[in-house]
Description:
Layout: E1 2-5, H1 7-15, H2 20-25, E2 28-32, H3 33-40, H4 49-54, E3 59-61, H5 66-72, H6 78-90, E4 94-96, H7 100-108, E5 113-114, H8 116-125, H9 133-141, H10 148-157
Parallel strand pairs: 1-2, 1-4, 2-3, 4-5
Helix pairs in contact: 3-6, 5-6
Amino acid sequence: MIAVINASPLISLALIDQIDLLQKIFTSVYVPGHVYQEVVDEETQRPGANIIRQAVWLKVIPINDEITTGILSYQLDRGEAEVIALGCEMKADLLIIDELKGRKIARHLGLNVSGTLGILLMARELKLIPDIKPCIDQLIAKGIWISEKLYNQVLKMEKEID
């Protein structure tokens, strides 16, 4: 299974030391060049950048379809636009995007989309993690915003709260 990932989920998974879940779930994980630079750039120094640099199994790839990326950039930031363009180009099985607008546009284009919590749900289903609650709690503790409604919804679905 091929996935293309955006910056937010990449950073989120790195922050809680769960980036390797991607390698265990997918046969290939692609990161558009702009997204990778946005995350590991020395000047911006995003959280988790060192962990992401060490994930040599991530396949950083430039975008060939600049026209689609340019068109999508009118409504999305450059990273999300590249993820969607690369997802189309690679015929990816899944795009991993947390931002709602990017997810909506990707779905409108017929692409399968998930986010950080979706990856954690997949990992739990595959028994790669025993529970999802500690991971979500770590994300929140590290400053990742997750609505209370979504938090409760996911934990109820996984029967980790009543």
